[in-house]
User: Fold this.
Amino acid sequence: LFFMFFSIFISYAFWNQDIVMGYRSIAPHLAIIYFFILLKLRIPIKSLEKIIWIMTIIYILLWTYAIIKAPELVFGLDSEADSITNDRGFFRLSIPGADIIILSFFLAINKFNDTKKKFWIFIFGGLFLIIILHVIRQIIIISFLIGLYFLLKKNKYLWIGLAFGGILLLGISNIKVNDNSIFGKLLNLSKDQIDENNTGEKDVRIQAYQFFFTEYTKNPINVIIGNGVPHMDSKLGKIEYNIAQRDSLWSSDVGFASIYIKYGIIGLLLYFSILKKVMFQKLQPQYMYARLFIIFVFGTTIAAEYIFTDVIIFALAIYILEYSNQEKNQIKRINI
Assistant:
Protein backbone atom coordinates (compact mmCIF):
# COMPACT_ATOMS: atom_id res chain seq x y z
CA LEU A 1 0.00 0.00 0.00
CA PHE A 2 2.87 2.36 0.86
CA PHE A 3 4.59 1.58 -2.45
CA MET A 4 1.40 2.44 -4.36
CA PHE A 5 1.38 5.91 -2.79
CA PHE A 6 5.12 6.18 -3.39
CA SER A 7 4.51 5.57 -7.11
CA ILE A 8 2.62 8.91 -7.25
CA PHE A 9 5.83 10.75 -6.40
CA ILE A 10 7.86 8.54 -8.75
CA SER A 11 5.68 9.54 -11.72
CA TYR A 12 5.91 13.19 -10.62
CA ALA A 13 9.68 13.17 -10.16
CA PHE A 14 10.58 11.35 -13.39
CA TRP A 15 7.67 12.19 -15.72
CA ASN A 16 6.28 15.41 -14.24
CA GLN A 17 2.88 13.77 -13.86
CA ASP A 18 0.61 15.89 -11.69
CA ILE A 19 0.18 14.60 -8.12
CA VAL A 20 -3.61 14.61 -8.46
CA MET A 21 -3.38 12.68 -11.73
CA GLY A 22 -1.04 10.21 -10.03
CA TYR A 23 -3.53 9.67 -7.23
CA ARG A 24 -6.43 9.23 -9.66
CA SER A 25 -4.36 6.63 -11.54
CA ILE A 26 -3.69 4.46 -8.50
CA ALA A 27 -7.14 4.97 -6.93
CA PRO A 28 -8.57 1.66 -8.29
CA HIS A 29 -5.54 -0.21 -6.89
CA LEU A 30 -6.12 1.29 -3.44
CA ALA A 31 -9.15 -0.98 -2.99
CA ILE A 32 -6.61 -3.33 -1.39
CA ILE A 33 -7.26 -1.22 1.73
CA TYR A 34 -10.36 -3.38 2.25
CA PHE A 35 -7.97 -6.13 3.37
CA PHE A 36 -6.82 -3.96 6.29
CA ILE A 37 -10.39 -2.90 7.08
CA LEU A 38 -11.48 -6.54 7.26
CA LEU A 39 -8.50 -7.36 9.49
CA LYS A 40 -9.50 -4.56 11.83
CA LEU A 41 -13.17 -5.64 11.95
CA ARG A 42 -12.31 -9.38 12.19
CA ILE A 43 -15.41 -10.39 10.23
CA PRO A 44 -16.00 -14.16 10.55
CA ILE A 45 -15.51 -16.18 7.36
CA LYS A 46 -19.05 -17.58 7.53
CA SER A 47 -20.43 -14.04 7.40
CA LEU A 48 -18.03 -13.16 4.61
CA GLU A 49 -19.12 -16.19 2.58
CA LYS A 50 -22.73 -15.03 2.86
CA ILE A 51 -21.62 -11.66 1.50
CA ILE A 52 -19.82 -13.45 -1.36
CA TRP A 53 -23.02 -15.29 -2.31
CA ILE A 54 -25.09 -12.09 -2.13
CA MET A 55 -22.56 -10.30 -4.35
CA THR A 56 -22.64 -13.26 -6.76
CA ILE A 57 -26.43 -13.16 -7.05
CA ILE A 58 -26.42 -9.38 -7.59
CA TYR A 59 -23.75 -9.70 -10.28
CA ILE A 60 -25.63 -12.47 -12.10
CA LEU A 61 -28.85 -10.42 -12.07
CA LEU A 62 -27.08 -7.34 -13.46
CA TRP A 63 -25.17 -9.38 -16.04
CA THR A 64 -28.36 -11.17 -17.16
CA TYR A 65 -30.17 -7.85 -17.54
CA ALA A 66 -27.26 -6.46 -19.59
CA ILE A 67 -27.30 -9.54 -21.84
CA ILE A 68 -31.06 -9.21 -22.37
CA LYS A 69 -30.57 -5.57 -23.41
CA ALA A 70 -27.62 -6.39 -25.72
CA PRO A 71 -26.35 -5.15 -28.13
CA GLU A 72 -27.35 -1.95 -26.35
CA LEU A 73 -24.68 -1.13 -23.76
CA VAL A 74 -26.51 -0.62 -20.46
CA PHE A 75 -23.41 -0.50 -18.27
CA GLY A 76 -19.86 -1.75 -18.42
CA LEU A 77 -16.23 -0.68 -18.58
CA ASP A 78 -16.33 0.51 -22.20
CA SER A 79 -18.01 3.86 -21.62
CA GLU A 80 -17.06 5.14 -25.10
CA ALA A 81 -18.98 2.44 -26.95
CA ASP A 82 -22.69 2.65 -27.69
CA SER A 83 -23.14 -1.10 -28.23
CA ILE A 84 -21.43 -4.44 -27.72
CA THR A 85 -20.63 -7.09 -30.32
CA ASN A 86 -20.99 -10.86 -30.38
CA ASP A 87 -17.97 -11.56 -32.56
CA ARG A 88 -17.03 -14.42 -30.22
CA GLY A 89 -20.40 -16.12 -30.52
CA PHE A 90 -21.89 -14.32 -27.52
CA PHE A 91 -22.06 -10.77 -26.23
CA ARG A 92 -18.86 -9.95 -24.36
CA LEU A 93 -19.52 -7.67 -21.40
CA SER A 94 -16.91 -6.03 -19.18
CA ILE A 95 -18.79 -5.41 -15.96
CA PRO A 96 -16.81 -4.51 -12.82
CA GLY A 97 -16.94 -7.23 -10.18
CA ALA A 98 -16.83 -10.23 -12.52
CA ASP A 99 -14.18 -11.88 -10.33
CA ILE A 100 -16.86 -12.65 -7.76
CA ILE A 101 -18.08 -15.38 -10.15
CA ILE A 102 -14.62 -16.97 -10.14
CA LEU A 103 -14.32 -16.80 -6.35
CA SER A 104 -17.80 -18.29 -5.81
CA PHE A 105 -17.04 -20.98 -8.44
CA PHE A 106 -14.05 -22.16 -6.38
CA LEU A 107 -16.07 -21.75 -3.19
CA ALA A 108 -18.81 -24.04 -4.57
CA ILE A 109 -16.23 -26.68 -5.52
CA ASN A 110 -14.76 -26.39 -2.02
CA LYS A 111 -18.23 -26.89 -0.50
CA PHE A 112 -18.79 -29.96 -2.66
CA ASN A 113 -15.45 -31.46 -1.61
CA ASP A 114 -16.29 -30.84 2.06
CA THR A 115 -19.93 -31.95 2.07
CA LYS A 116 -20.26 -34.26 -0.99
CA LYS A 117 -23.73 -32.78 -1.54
CA LYS A 118 -24.78 -32.92 -5.19
CA PHE A 119 -26.45 -29.52 -4.79
CA TRP A 120 -23.01 -27.92 -5.09
CA ILE A 121 -22.38 -29.66 -8.43
CA PHE A 122 -25.27 -27.71 -9.94
CA ILE A 123 -23.98 -24.49 -8.36
CA PHE A 124 -20.40 -24.69 -9.62
CA GLY A 125 -21.63 -26.10 -12.94
CA GLY A 126 -23.95 -23.13 -13.40
CA LEU A 127 -21.23 -20.69 -12.39
CA PHE A 128 -18.82 -22.24 -14.88
CA LEU A 129 -21.44 -21.83 -17.60
CA ILE A 130 -21.53 -18.11 -16.81
CA ILE A 131 -17.71 -18.06 -16.96
CA ILE A 132 -17.89 -19.62 -20.43
CA LEU A 133 -20.49 -17.08 -21.55
CA HIS A 134 -18.05 -14.30 -20.70
CA VAL A 135 -16.09 -15.67 -23.72
CA ILE A 136 -12.61 -14.86 -22.40
CA ARG A 137 -10.42 -17.83 -23.31
CA GLN A 138 -7.72 -17.61 -20.67
CA ILE A 139 -10.27 -17.17 -17.87
CA ILE A 140 -12.24 -20.18 -19.11
CA ILE A 141 -9.16 -22.39 -19.46
CA ILE A 142 -7.38 -21.42 -16.22
CA SER A 143 -10.51 -21.57 -14.03
CA PHE A 144 -11.38 -24.95 -15.58
CA LEU A 145 -7.91 -26.43 -15.02
CA ILE A 146 -7.65 -25.20 -11.43
CA GLY A 147 -11.19 -26.33 -10.61
CA LEU A 148 -10.69 -29.73 -12.26
CA TYR A 149 -7.41 -30.32 -10.42
CA PHE A 150 -9.03 -29.50 -7.08
CA LEU A 151 -11.97 -31.79 -7.81
CA LEU A 152 -9.78 -34.70 -8.90
CA LYS A 153 -7.45 -34.26 -5.95
CA LYS A 154 -10.31 -34.66 -3.47
CA ASN A 155 -12.51 -37.10 -5.43
CA LYS A 156 -10.45 -39.99 -6.78
CA TYR A 157 -13.46 -41.64 -8.43
CA LEU A 158 -13.74 -38.69 -10.81
CA TRP A 159 -10.64 -39.98 -12.59
CA ILE A 160 -12.88 -42.73 -14.00
CA GLY A 161 -15.27 -40.12 -15.35
CA LEU A 162 -12.36 -38.11 -16.75
CA ALA A 163 -10.96 -41.17 -18.53
CA PHE A 164 -14.39 -41.96 -19.97
CA GLY A 165 -14.78 -38.35 -21.07
CA GLY A 166 -11.37 -38.46 -22.77
CA ILE A 167 -12.33 -41.59 -24.71
CA LEU A 168 -15.64 -40.00 -25.68
CA LEU A 169 -13.87 -36.84 -26.80
CA LEU A 170 -11.54 -38.85 -29.03
CA GLY A 171 -14.55 -40.61 -30.49
CA ILE A 172 -16.29 -37.38 -31.48
CA SER A 173 -13.17 -35.42 -32.41
CA ASN A 174 -14.09 -35.55 -36.09
CA ILE A 175 -17.42 -33.83 -35.51
CA LYS A 176 -17.33 -30.33 -36.98
CA VAL A 177 -17.99 -27.50 -34.55
CA ASN A 178 -20.34 -24.80 -35.83
CA ASP A 179 -18.15 -21.81 -36.71
CA ASN A 180 -20.86 -19.42 -35.51
CA SER A 181 -21.14 -20.98 -32.06
CA ILE A 182 -19.27 -19.74 -28.97
CA PHE A 183 -16.84 -22.66 -29.03
CA GLY A 184 -16.45 -22.42 -32.80
CA LYS A 185 -15.48 -18.75 -32.73
CA LEU A 186 -13.15 -19.18 -29.74
CA LEU A 187 -11.46 -22.17 -31.41
CA ASN A 188 -11.09 -20.29 -34.68
CA LEU A 189 -9.60 -17.32 -32.85
CA SER A 190 -7.05 -19.61 -31.19
CA LYS A 191 -6.35 -21.36 -34.51
CA ASP A 192 -5.70 -18.04 -36.25
CA GLN A 193 -3.17 -17.08 -33.58
CA ILE A 194 -1.43 -20.46 -33.89
CA ASP A 195 -1.30 -20.08 -37.68
CA GLU A 196 0.26 -16.62 -37.30
CA ASN A 197 2.96 -18.08 -35.03
CA ASN A 198 3.60 -20.93 -37.49
CA THR A 199 4.13 -18.45 -40.33
CA GLY A 200 6.91 -16.80 -38.38
CA GLU A 201 4.91 -13.95 -36.90
CA LYS A 202 5.76 -13.64 -33.23
CA ASP A 203 2.80 -13.57 -30.84
CA VAL A 204 1.88 -9.99 -29.98
CA ARG A 205 2.03 -10.71 -26.24
CA ILE A 206 5.56 -12.09 -26.53
CA GLN A 207 6.52 -8.95 -28.43
CA ALA A 208 4.89 -6.83 -25.72
CA TYR A 209 6.77 -8.63 -22.94
CA GLN A 210 10.07 -8.20 -24.75
CA PHE A 211 9.43 -4.51 -25.39
CA PHE A 212 8.19 -3.54 -21.92
CA PHE A 213 10.89 -5.51 -20.12
CA THR A 214 13.84 -4.46 -22.31
CA GLU A 215 13.05 -1.19 -24.13
CA TYR A 216 10.32 0.79 -22.36
CA THR A 217 12.20 1.75 -19.19
CA LYS A 218 15.50 3.51 -19.92
CA ASN A 219 16.49 4.82 -16.48
CA PRO A 220 18.19 2.23 -14.19
CA ILE A 221 16.45 3.78 -11.18
CA ASN A 222 13.04 3.24 -12.81
CA VAL A 223 13.99 -0.37 -13.49
CA ILE A 224 14.11 -0.82 -9.71
CA ILE A 225 11.22 1.39 -8.53
CA GLY A 226 9.11 1.67 -11.69
CA ASN A 227 7.76 4.67 -13.59
CA GLY A 228 4.54 5.07 -11.64
CA VAL A 229 0.99 4.51 -12.85
CA PRO A 230 0.25 6.63 -15.94
CA HIS A 231 -2.79 8.86 -16.27
CA MET A 232 -4.17 8.96 -19.81
CA ASP A 233 -3.93 12.77 -19.94
CA SER A 234 -0.33 12.98 -18.68
CA LYS A 235 2.91 12.78 -20.67
CA LEU A 236 3.53 9.25 -19.35
CA GLY A 237 0.02 8.17 -20.28
CA LYS A 238 0.33 9.59 -23.81
CA ILE A 239 3.64 7.78 -24.34
CA GLU A 240 2.03 4.46 -23.42
CA TYR A 241 -1.04 5.24 -25.56
CA ASN A 242 1.10 6.12 -28.59
CA ILE A 243 3.03 2.85 -28.25
CA ALA A 244 -0.26 0.94 -28.17
CA GLN A 245 -1.59 2.75 -31.24
CA ARG A 246 1.65 2.58 -33.23
CA ASP A 247 2.89 -0.91 -32.40
CA SER A 248 -0.26 -2.58 -30.98
CA LEU A 249 1.65 -3.27 -27.76
CA TRP A 250 -0.68 -2.84 -24.80
CA SER A 251 0.68 -3.11 -21.27
CA SER A 252 -2.79 -4.25 -20.17
CA ASP A 253 -2.26 -7.43 -22.23
CA VAL A 254 0.89 -8.44 -20.34
CA GLY A 255 0.19 -8.25 -16.63
CA PHE A 256 3.62 -8.92 -15.16
CA ALA A 257 5.24 -6.49 -17.60
CA SER A 258 2.64 -3.94 -16.55
CA ILE A 259 3.59 -4.40 -12.89
CA TYR A 260 7.26 -4.00 -13.87
CA ILE A 261 6.88 -0.73 -15.79
CA LYS A 262 4.60 0.74 -13.09
CA TYR A 263 6.26 -0.52 -9.90
CA GLY A 264 9.62 -1.87 -11.11
CA ILE A 265 11.51 -4.90 -9.86
CA ILE A 266 10.45 -4.07 -6.30
CA GLY A 267 6.80 -4.28 -7.35
CA LEU A 268 7.30 -7.66 -8.99
CA LEU A 269 9.07 -9.00 -5.89
CA LEU A 270 6.25 -7.76 -3.65
CA TYR A 271 3.59 -9.43 -5.79
CA PHE A 272 5.47 -12.71 -6.02
CA SER A 273 6.00 -12.63 -2.25
CA ILE A 274 2.19 -12.74 -1.94
CA LEU A 275 2.07 -15.79 -4.20
CA LYS A 276 4.87 -17.49 -2.24
CA LYS A 277 3.06 -16.94 1.06
CA VAL A 278 -0.22 -18.21 -0.40
CA MET A 279 1.36 -21.34 -1.86
CA PHE A 280 3.35 -22.38 1.24
CA GLN A 281 0.90 -21.35 3.95
CA LYS A 282 -0.65 -24.26 5.83
CA LEU A 283 -4.33 -23.79 5.12
CA GLN A 284 -7.46 -25.25 6.64
CA PRO A 285 -9.31 -27.28 3.94
CA GLN A 286 -12.53 -25.25 4.12
CA TYR A 287 -10.65 -22.11 3.00
CA MET A 288 -8.83 -23.68 0.05
CA TYR A 289 -11.01 -21.76 -2.43
CA ALA A 290 -9.26 -18.51 -1.48
CA ARG A 291 -5.88 -20.00 -2.41
CA LEU A 292 -7.28 -21.26 -5.71
CA PHE A 293 -8.54 -17.77 -6.49
CA ILE A 294 -5.14 -16.17 -5.84
CA ILE A 295 -3.47 -18.80 -8.05
CA PHE A 296 -6.08 -18.03 -10.72
CA VAL A 297 -5.32 -14.29 -10.52
CA PHE A 298 -1.58 -14.86 -10.93
CA GLY A 299 -2.20 -17.32 -13.76
CA THR A 300 -4.36 -14.91 -15.73
CA THR A 301 -1.97 -12.02 -15.07
CA ILE A 302 0.45 -13.65 -17.53
CA ALA A 303 -1.72 -12.52 -20.44
CA ALA A 304 -3.72 -9.65 -18.95
CA GLU A 305 -3.50 -6.89 -16.38
CA TYR A 306 -5.74 -9.05 -14.23
CA ILE A 307 -4.15 -8.39 -10.87
CA PHE A 308 -5.28 -4.74 -11.08
CA THR A 309 -8.94 -5.57 -11.82
CA ASP A 310 -11.51 -6.29 -9.11
CA VAL A 311 -8.99 -5.54 -6.37
CA ILE A 312 -11.76 -5.74 -3.75
CA ILE A 313 -12.31 -9.44 -4.54
CA PHE A 314 -8.55 -9.99 -4.36
CA ALA A 315 -8.57 -8.29 -0.92
CA LEU A 316 -11.38 -10.61 0.24
CA ALA A 317 -9.38 -13.69 -0.75
CA ILE A 318 -6.21 -12.44 0.94
CA TYR A 319 -8.18 -11.68 4.10
CA ILE A 320 -9.69 -15.19 4.18
CA LEU A 321 -6.20 -16.68 3.97
CA GLU A 322 -4.87 -14.39 6.71
CA TYR A 323 -7.91 -15.10 8.90
CA SER A 324 -7.32 -18.84 8.46
CA ASN A 325 -3.67 -18.41 9.43
CA GLN A 326 -4.54 -16.42 12.56
CA GLU A 327 -7.29 -18.88 13.51
CA LYS A 328 -4.88 -21.80 13.19
CA ASN A 329 -2.24 -20.06 15.31
CA GLN A 330 -4.87 -19.30 17.95
CA ILE A 331 -5.88 -22.97 18.09
CA LYS A 332 -2.22 -23.94 18.54
CA ARG A 333 -1.83 -21.52 21.46
CA ILE A 334 -4.95 -22.94 23.14
CA ASN A 335 -3.66 -26.49 22.75
CA ILE A 336 -0.32 -25.52 24.25
